[in-house]
Amino acid sequence: MTATIKDVAREANVSVASVSRALNGHGSMAEETRARVLQVAKRLNYAPNGMARSLIMRRTHTLGALLPELHGEFFSELIRGIDLAARSNGMHLMVSSSHGNAAEVATALQAMRGRVDGLLLMSPYADAGFLQQNLSDALPTVLMNTRMPGTGISSFSVDNYAAARAMVTHLVACGHRRIVHVAGPTENFDAAERRRGYEDALRALLPDQRPEVVAGRFTEESGHAAGARIAAMAEPPDAVFAANDSMAIGCLFALGAAGLRVPEDIAVTGFDDIPIARFINPPLTTLRVRIAELGRHAMERLVATVADQGNPRIETRTLEPELVVRASCGGDRTRKQTN
């Protein structure tokens, strides 16, 4: 038979409450008594009931991660970083997605209440007012790429605007003049910031060139459709700057199918530096976001916030993407290609 907490209490000649205090590391107990209880528990092979213990301690030892999507290399890398940090801190991970829908964000937040000790939230589709209405003040939360200023919540984000400007600056330095942007979803904050950086850089560097934007959805399929539209233009542009690597890769294949060579006829660049970006032909020039590192840092901050709910340290960190120059951008023959 499986030993119970009452068996341990009887064998150690203490109360059930004393066994609980000893196993939970409570300070108000003589060390001699604690050692005797732990020795008896080990000899009887006693394992505490996790569910009952969670109810008593009001802890589930589970952390939640609510993301816009779960598929694709970006989110695979992000979850990898989040999970490694959770496991290294002895926590379980519950992952859910909202599929970019604000109503589903609210539903998922409701479903996680009482099931997790803290929440990692990425919701670039929901604004600050919506999140304030649906986030519980009692639930420790850390934000990723979610704009919610002035709320006293730790947040980790990417400087999408400055990175997009850096990419356009690089393409102009390579000699490209007509640069088309394949944008992400209009309601997505990251996509809006990347488009804003593209447009501002173009106005500053090439005031005679009007911005040209082709709609996309952050998917390979939407990038392929955008590439087909660009290839069908009466006069194709010099370069394409896609708002993420998935769309850049889809675009690259569509351009190739239309007989356009990359980078000889047209340059193609992306954003994120997902693992496959360096292995396609030609390798993709992009903006490197250390995706797994973003997830790891955010999860480590959440663990610390849960542990210190009385006076949590608020941390706001903006990650600067790194320009990674590979063969797909063309025009930069003297600069060393990087991996």
Low-pLDDT stretches are 53-57, 332-339
Spell out the helices and strands N to C: HHHHEHEHEHEEHEHEHEHEEHEE
- Shape-level CATH architecture of the largest domain: 3-Layer(aba) Sandwich
Radius of gyration: 26 Å
Q: Report the helical percentage.
A: 40-55%
Q: Averaging pLDDT over every residue, what do you get?
A: 86
Question: Which strand order does the major sheet show?
Answer: 2-1-3-4-5-11
Distance between the termini: 59 Å
Tell me the CATH superfamily of the largest domain: Response regulator
Beta content comes to: 5-15%
Q: Might you state the CATH topology name of the largest domain?
A: Rossmann fold
Shape: elongated
Beta strand count:
12
In the CATH scheme, the class of the largest domain would be Alpha Beta
Total count of domains = 3
**Biggest sheet, open or closed, and with what strands and sense?**
6 strands, parallel
The SS-based structural class is alpha/beta
What's the helix count? Answer: 12
Quick rundown:
The chain has 339 residues and is an alpha/beta fold. It has 12 helices and 12 strands. Helix 1 packs across helix 3 (31-43), helix 8 runs parallel beside helix 9 and helix 10 packs across helix 11.
